[in-house]
């Protein structure tokens, strides 16, 4: 008799219903798929104001990048490779050289970053981007 009781308990264990477990798994999956992308925008960031004080033009050197991609420094046109050598020369003349980078809004972000990298590689530590006030 005891043997028959033991077999019935084993047969009951082998017949576990998996449907509720699968439902719970999909519910958790859907919950995470919805909440994880929203967490990216949950960071509280206050961007800087666009209305900064006016900078005196005589204490800065200006690099211009016009809408055609032409680079000007000290009102003379340069290629990016030549600009690096000129910035090193200017840095040696003036140890506290500060740069303003003015780029046309239609130029790609990559080009502005290349200008900033060139200035940084020349040893210039103070680089500012010029924007228009709204």
Report what the structure shows.
- The chain has 134 residues and is of the alpha/beta class.
- It folds into two domains: 2-40; 57-129, 2-Layer Sandwich (Nucleotidyltransferase, domain 5), CATH 3.30.420.
- It contains four helices and five strands, in the order ααβββαβαβ.
- It has helices at 2-13, 19-40, 80-93, 109-121, and strands at residues 61-65, 71-73, 76-78, 98-103, 126-129.
- The chain is rod-shaped.
- The termini are far apart.
Outline of the structure:
The chain has helices spanning 2-13, 19-40, 80-93, 109-121; strands at residues 61-65, 71-73, 76-78, 98-103, 126-129.
Question: Which key phrases capture this entry?
Answer:
134 residues; alpha/beta; Nucleotidyltransferase, domain 5; 2 domains; rod-shaped
Annotate the secondary structure layout.
Layout: H1 2-13, H2 19-40, E1 61-65, E2 71-73, E3 76-78, H3 80-93, E4 98-103, H4 109-121, E5 126-129
Parallel strand pairs: 1-4, 4-5
Antiparallel strand pairs: 1-2, 2-3
Low-confidence stretches: none
The helix content, as a percent range, equals: 40-55%
Q: Just give the CATH class of the largest domain.
A: Alpha Beta
The residue-averaged pLDDT reads 78
Describe the biggest sheet? 5 strands, mixed
Query: What is the H/E order?
Result: HHEEEHEHE
Strand content: 15-25%
- CATH topology descriptor of the largest domain: Nucleotidyltransferase, domain 5
Question: Spatial order of the strands in the main sheet?
Answer: 3-2-1-4-5
CATH level-two architecture of the largest domain:
2-Layer Sandwich
| Whole-angstrom Rg | 32 Å
Instruction: Count the E strands.
Output: 5
Shape: rod-shaped
The number of helical segments is 4
Q: Which structural class fits the helix and strand makeup?
A: alpha/beta
